[in-house]
Amino acid sequence: MSSFVGDIFGAGGVGEAIKSISDDVGKLIPDATVREQVQAALVAKQQELTKQADDHEQARVLAETDIQKAQIAVDQTQVTSTDKFIAYARPAAMWVGVIGLLYASVISPIIGWFDTIFNWPGKVFTLDTTITMQLLFGLLGLGGYRTIEKLKGVASASDPPQVVPPADPKA
Asked: Which of 99, 109, 119, 125 has the fewest CB atoms within 10 Å of its CB?
């Protein structure tokens, strides 16, 4: 019961209210038999609510897992696609990041330098590199991770089979 719903129906929230009512039943109902029946009914109701909360949490987790599995299937289809508009999306995103970095770190300073030397009337456009750097470094990180996988011999479905030469017994 680590969920919000479990907290409401379990240790806190409604569960705590039912426990408080159950404790007050002894003060309100003098007949011991009736009091025990009411307390037993309250405990049963608390257990029922707790079970419903647990079932709800389990259903939520299963639904999220199904969504993630569907996304993985879509990603695998995109990776193996030969269609330009699907397969080239990742390289296009990478080139957008590279062009942004190139402009911000090379082209813009050179234009600013020429602006200072020749006193051009225009203003040099500066690029906010926050988004382009996140995009570029994320893609570079994935590329580096894939390079490490290839060096360790982890193949993917799109990799051609690699023949590893046998180790030289003399070495």
From this structure: 119
